[in-house]
Recover the amino acids of this structure.
């Protein structure tokens, strides 16, 4: 039996990409799920499929992680219903725009900082005291290779992911003496809706990001996240970086013509 069987997992940003792949992977391991995103209709379709296929309980809610009061109310609801997760996959995030900083749009900065940094904090801050009180819990933040090395035009997005690294380290330190584990998984190029969102619906530009090499897919990243989550309780992974074989750092990628 998998170490994840019966352990409740909350995935933020479960309506597509890496988050959706995590929901599928954890459900296959027998983990009951709580799925959050803004597109509730997508979550409902996914939940119905996973209940049917794997027989796991799945609770869905429309939660915008930027809305602190909404996050706090959703977490209070989980506590009341005895649905506090054992594992939080703090995944909701995005890049907005791919511009030189001097041409960048401050509204894009706000979306990235509010989601990738403050949204991630909102969810972790609401859940962590409940995990500590219960004596178990694992927070897995989704960072990026961009949090290790900034690439041209990566400016604010890379800064948010560097913040995720620093926050993982800081929250880990503040959990010393508790059984709570705090990890980051930092993917490189993964073909999801990420680039379509970043390029604001420009399908051609989004596709070009993944052309000429074999990128990761959500499932590859979910495998790594499930590995980290499934380790015995005395094993705490701080950081895992996972890239396509064609990629060697945040921006060096070997593309075939
Ligand atoms: P997708 O665009 O496919 O998925 C992003 C998910 O985040 C969606 O489910 C979206 O749901 C959710 N989301 C975005 N904003 C909010 C919000 N305010 N509140 C709640 N949910 C939100 O991209 P990925 O799966 O690739 O991205 C997932 C994470 O992985 C992000 O943190 C991203 O930075 C990170 N990452 C991605 C890489 C890649 O190459 N794809 C590489 C490294 C890291 P909805 O719109 O329904 O709210
Ligand atoms: C997402 C991957 O390289 O586009 O973090 O920044 S990248």
């Amino acid at each position: 039996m998998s170490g994840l069987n019966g352990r409740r997992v909350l995935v933020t940003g479960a309506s597509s990409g890496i988050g959706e792949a995590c929901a599928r992977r954890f459900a296959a391991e027998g983990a009951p799920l709580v799925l959050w995103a803004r597109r509730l209709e997508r979550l409902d379709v996914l939940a119905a499929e996973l209940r049917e296929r794997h027989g796991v309980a799945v609770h869905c809610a429309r939660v915008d992680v930027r809305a602190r009061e909404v996050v706090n109310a959703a977490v209070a609801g989980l506590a009341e219903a005895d649905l506090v997760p054992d594992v939080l996959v703090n995944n909701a995030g995005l890049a907005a725009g791919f511009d030189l900083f001097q041409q960048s749009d401050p509204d894009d900065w706000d979306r990235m900082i509010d989601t990738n940094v403050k949204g991630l904090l909102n969810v972790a801050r609401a859940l962590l005291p409940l995990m500590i009180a219960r004596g178990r819990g694992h927070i897995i933040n989704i960072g990026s290779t961009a949090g290790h090395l900034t690439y041209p035009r990566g400016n604010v997005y890379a800064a948010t992911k560097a913040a995720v690294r620093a926050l993982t380290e800081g929250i880990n330190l503040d959990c010393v003496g508790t059984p709570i584990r705090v990890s980051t998984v930092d993917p490189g190029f993964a073909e999801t809706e990420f680039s379509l969102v970043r390029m604001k619906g420009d399908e051609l530009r989004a596709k070009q990001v993944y052309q000429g090499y074999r990128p990761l897919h959500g499932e590859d990243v979910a495998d790594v996240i499930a590995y980290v989550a499934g380790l015995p309780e005395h094993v705490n992974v701080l950081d895992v970086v996972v890239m396509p074989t064609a990629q060697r750092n945040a921006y060096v990628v070997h593309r075939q013509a």
Notes: The CA atoms of residues 196 and 202 lie 6 Å apart. The chain has eight helices and nine strands. The chain has a mean pLDDT of 98. The pocket of 2-hydroxyethylsulfonic acid (ligand 2) is lined by residues 144-146, 154, 188-189, 194, 250 (CB under 6 Å).
